[in-house]
Amino acid sequence: MNKNVLIISTSPRKNGNSEILADAFAKGAADAGHQVEKVSLYDKTINFCRGCLSCQKTGRCVIHDDADTIAQKMLTADVLAFATPIYYYEMSGQMKTMLDRANPLYSLEYAFRDVYLLAAAAEAEDSAIDGAVHGLQGWISCFPNSRLAGTVFGGGVDAAGVIKGHPSVKQAYEMGKGI
C-alpha cells in the first residue's frame, strides 16, 4: 500500500547533516513507491505557540505562518519523519517549536501512525540522541494511534555535509524503503 510520507527537516542549516539523513530517508521511501514530501524549516517563518488553545475548538492555529500550513500537511500524512541536529543532547529548538505548533492536531482525526526520528550530532556516543527520543516520544504519547517506529542516529559529525558516507545515511535510506 502506497503511503503519504511527510519528512520535516528541522535544521537551521541548509544541507546540514540531519537534512542529508532526511534526503536519504525520502529517497528510500520514494524508491519503495510511496508519495513523499520533504519540508525544510530553515527558510520558514514559525512563531512560538501562544498557549491560547483556540486550536482545540477550531482545528487551526490563530497564528497564520508556515507552521499552520505544515501542521495541516501533518494531519493528512500516513507517516511522519522528523530530522534534527542534536543540540545539547536534545532536538533542535526549531523542531520543538514545530511540535508545539502542531497542537491543533490533538483534537482532530490525524492520519499518521508511524513516526520516525533522524538525528545527527557532533557527539559520537549513541546516548546523544536519548533526549530527542524522549522529547519526541512525549509528543507521540499525545496521539494514541501513533508510535515511534524507528530512529537513525549519525554521531560524530559536525561540519555540514561530513555525514556523507557515514553508515547512518544508508540506514536512513533503508528505513525509508522499509515503510
Structural class: alpha/beta
For the biggest sheet, the summary is: 5 strands, parallel
Radius of gyration: 15 Å
Across the major sheet, the strand order is: 2-1-3-4-5
The total strand number stands at 5
N- and C-termini, Cα separation: 10 Å
Average pLDDT rating:
97
What gross morphology would you assign? globular
CATH topology: Rossmann fold
State the name of the first-level CATH class: Alpha Beta
- The CATH H-level superfamily is Flavodoxin domain
Uncertain ranges:
none
Q: Which range best describes the helical content: under 10%, 10-25%, 25-40%, 40-55%, 55-70% or over 70%?
A: 25-40%
Main features:
single chain; 179 residues; alpha/beta
Q: What do you see in this structure?
A:
Helix 1 runs parallel beside helix 6 (167-177). The protein has one domain (4-177): Rossmann fold, CATH 3.40.50. The radius of gyration is 15 Å and the shape is globular. By secondary structure, the chain is an alpha/beta fold. It is built from 6 helices and 5 strands; from the N terminus they run βαβααβαβαβα. The mean pLDDT is 97.
Secondary-structure blueprint of this entry?
Blueprint: E1 4-9, H1 17-31, E2 35-40, H2 55-58, H3 66-76, E3 79-85, H4 93-101, E4 114-121, H5 130-140, E5 147-155, H6 167-177
Parallel strand pairs: 1-2, 1-3, 3-4, 4-5
